[in-house]
Amino acid sequence: MADDGRLILAVNPGGTSTKLGLYRETEPVFEMSVRHLPEELEKLGSTLGQLEYRRDMILRALEEEGHDISDLSAVVGRGGAFKPLESGTYQVNSKLVEDIREGSSLQADHPSNLGALLAWDIAAKAGCRPYIVDPVCVDEMIPEARLSGLPMLERVSLSHALNIRMVAYKAAGKLGRPLNGINLVVLHLGSGISVNPIRRGRMIDTSHANDGGPFSPQRVGALPTTGLARLCLSGEYKWSEMKTMLLKRGGLMAYTGTDHVGEARKRAEEGDETCDLALRAMVYQITKEAGAMAAALYGDVDAVVITGGIAHNSWVVERLASNLAFLGEIIVFPGEEELEALMRGVLRVMDSVEEVKVYR
Question: In the chain, what are the domains?
């Protein structure tokens, strides 16, 4: 590995950790996950209050690994729930930093919002450029996809865009065609599930991991509307309790008591009929959603791409592949390689494969 290649630092802040990756071109120099104790984060108050704490831990980690930040060619952070944006790689600018700090344009309070600020601060110290890539707020939905059936509740686009776009590029490479020349249905299967149709490189719709689509290991997916309304108005639950029920303890967890697909499958094989039914129902709902997104592409589908942590589970993948084979080639990229996705997004801009986007 040559020592004169570009050195890129990728930063992915999460709820209990900050993941770091240092890359010499596409080769990893090191990857690590810096854990944060819940009591430490609680002392800092807000998500924004964690910025200096996380930044200083990143700088210490770099120093302990024997790297000087002045050697960095770029710093890239995970993009958060900002206002709706097109897919692509954005150079972090003062407008984005100001909007995050002010907070009015944020769609959700999440540690990923810190990614741009961390990149901005560290890049300023290093004397290089800061970037974000394919934030969760990527919104390329066609107008027809935005209407929900109730004007005051427009459908919005929040998805696992970072990993989805990376595997879309990989699928295009495997098919031997440019991404803007193919149509894909991408299934991101994790604690939340996103199902996206990609038409000629654009994510024209999404199931939205929190507000619709199939149920997942932790989230409820689409629910019977009037039943949900009655539940919310029953007076039995506070909003905080409903939010936990819908986003943390719904789906597979609600039916089986576990959000681990492997554990649920093990129980099913040992004769637990509830686990067996819940898993088959989850696969059934994913299949239905994939079919709906294939219909959104008018049946013109070059491949179905299965990705995310659950894509490591052969039982789930084999059934989805069998169910969806009629749509086209099935391509599987297990896991969520978000640090790699950040690095590759920066390289696409530095190598002039894509133009850098400007946040306004």
Answer: 7-140+339-358 (3.30.420.40), 161-335 (3.30.420.40)
Compute the distance between CA of residue 306 and CA of residue 187 in angstroms, rounded to an integer. Answer: 5
Say whether 1 sits in a helix, a strand or coil. Answer: coil
Provide the 10 A C-beta neighbour count for residue 331.
20
Mean of pLDDT over the chain = 94
Residue 152, amino acid: M
Which tokens is 88 given? 């692509």
Q: Residue 260 and residue 43: Cα distance in Å, rounded?
A: 30
Taking only the tens place, the pLDDT of each residue in 155-208 is 999 889 999 999 999 999 999 999 999 999 999 999 899 999 999 999 999 998
Nearest-angstrom CA–CA distance, 90 and 87: 9
Max distance between CA atoms of the chain, in angstroms, equals 64
Name the pLDDT band for 3 (thresholds 50, 70, 90).
low
By DSSP bridging, strand 129-133 and strand 74-78 are parallel
